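Researcher: Good morning. I'm working through a list of sequences from a screen, and I'd like to move beyond sequence-only analysis. For each chain I'm collecting a predicted structure so we can compare shapes side by side. This is the next one on the list. No need for commentary yet; just the structure.
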Amino acid sequence: MEENQDKSELVEVTTTRRSGTATLLVVAFFALAAAALLFWWLNRPGGTAGRVVTAPRNVNFGQADAGASTNGTAQPGEATLNVAPDVAARAGVKVEAVGEQLAPEALQQAATGVVQANAYRSTPVVSLVGGRLLRVSAEAGQEVRRGQQVAVVFSDELASAETRYLSAQAELEEHHKHHHRTLELVEIGAASREEAEQSVSMLKKAEAEVAAERQKLLLLGLTPQSVAALQSPAQVSSELSLPAPAGGTVISRAANPGEVVEANKELLRVADLSNVWVVGQVFERDLARVRVGSGASVTSEAYPGRVWRGHVTYVDPQLDPSTRTAQVRVELANPGQALKLGMYVNVGFGALDTAEATAPTVPASSVQTIGGRTFVFLATSDAGTYVMRPVRLGPEAGGRYPVLEGLHVGDRVVTEGSFMLRAEWLKLHPE
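Model: Good morning. Structure tokens for this chain:
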């Protein structure tokens, strides 16, 4: 029995030792794992341990949220770089708002269009009398107001019309006097009622003649005030002032001073360019989906990062037999007259799912590569503070990149001077 008892105690001791060894192995494993994790954390890309930040710059590290917008402030966890404002100014740091363009896949399907003046807001300046052009006071491209004098024509036709008007007025006055005398004679029995009726008829005829001559003067371009003020032959003039029929921009000028012009010749054309048309060519296969009233987006290589939005107002019922396309007219606002007449543009139609397929766009100068990753620097509301934002870009076109991930339209990115910010970043992170 004693021998059996000794064997049991030996087994217990052996089991206890084995259990303690396993526990020590587990503890050692977790300790090594924790040490490795700590080592990785302290030496990870963007880690802050053991790094000295020198004034006036400091760096905060973390994983940037590729879809967040700064809205003037850095988001939690975003990497930021602080540069003294005077240093940034000397380096020529400039900031530009993130623009917008049709997405690459939408741009491939976009139609080509041409900017035209809105024909419903385009008015010619026409001389209704023939004569010699004395002055032209408006140049092509000049802004004019409605009623502003833009040209003066010297015309004998105008002088003849004014003379006939004065003659008709004089005859009307004479018929008024004759009618008044006839009525007095009828009252005393010195004239018959038939003579009175004749005087009334002649008076009405004279009034009609004056009205007709007055309308001719108005038709030739005189204002009602000018006609009413015409009372004597001394006021007869051969110079006809041509006013701008509407406010807008002079888009064409077809005559110069000294030229002899015919009646009804267009001398200038004034158009309101705050609203324009874009006429695009749509293929036959897509016409069934394009409707009047549907939305459209317009972009131009002259203004990268800018999108104009309008709507379809007309679809041509006839196809061009050579191209198998039809003209589709888009009407849109043109603030600042940025879109010029005759400019080639790209048109995305909402009915074809290309109008709203847009992407933010940034200039190539704002894009920097660090550690194999692509970044841009965003300005914040704090002077001298810039957010380092990773982005995913599409293929470059015209010196700009479409941003597939990382930015929103309106974010403020550093364009000129971004390379200097990259250099400052690398000074603090030579690894």
